[in-house]
Amino acid sequence: MAKKSDPKQTKYLLPESEIPTKWVNIAADLPGEPLPPLSPQTGEPLGPEDLAPLFAMALIEQEVSAEPEIEIPEEVRDAYRLWRPTPLIRARRLEQALDTPAHIYFKYEGVSPAGSHKPNTAVPQAFYNAQQGIKKLATETGAGQWGSSLSFACQMFGLECEVFMVGVSYDQKPYRRAMMETWGATVHRSPSDLTEAGRSQAEHSTGSLGIAISEAVEVAAQSDDTNYALGSVLSHVCLHQTVIGEEAIAQLEMAGEYPDVVIGCVGGGSNFAGIAFPLLRKKLKEGLDTRFVAVEPAACPTLTQGTYAYDFGDTVGMTPMMPMYTLGHDFVPPPVHAGGLRYHGDAPILCALVKEGLIDAKAIPQTEAFESAVQFAKAEGIIPAPEPTHAIRAVIEEAEAAKAEGDERVILFNLCGHGHLDLAAYQAFLSGELEDLEFSEEDMKKALESLPDAPAVA
Amino acid sequence: MAKKSDPKQTKYLLPESEIPTKWVNIAADLPGEPLPPLSPQTGEPLGPEDLAPLFAMALIEQEVSAEPEIEIPEEVRDAYRLWRPTPLIRARRLEQALDTPAHIYFKYEGVSPAGSHKPNTAVPQAFYNAQQGIKKLATETGAGQWGSSLSFACQMFGLECEVFMVGVSYDQKPYRRAMMETWGATVHRSPSDLTEAGRSQAEHSTGSLGIAISEAVEVAAQSDDTNYALGSVLSHVCLHQTVIGEEAIAQLEMAGEYPDVVIGCVGGGSNFAGIAFPLLRKKLKEGLDTRFVAVEPAACPTLTQGTYAYDFGDTVGMTPMMPMYTLGHDFVPPPVHAGGLRYHGDAPILCALVKEGLIDAKAIPQTEAFESAVQFAKAEGIIPAPEPTHAIRAVIEEAEAAKAEGDERVILFNLCGHGHLDLAAYQAFLSGELEDLEFSEEDMKKALESLPDAPAVA
Question: Which end of chain A, C or N, has fewer beta carbons within 10 A?
Answer without folding.
Answer: N
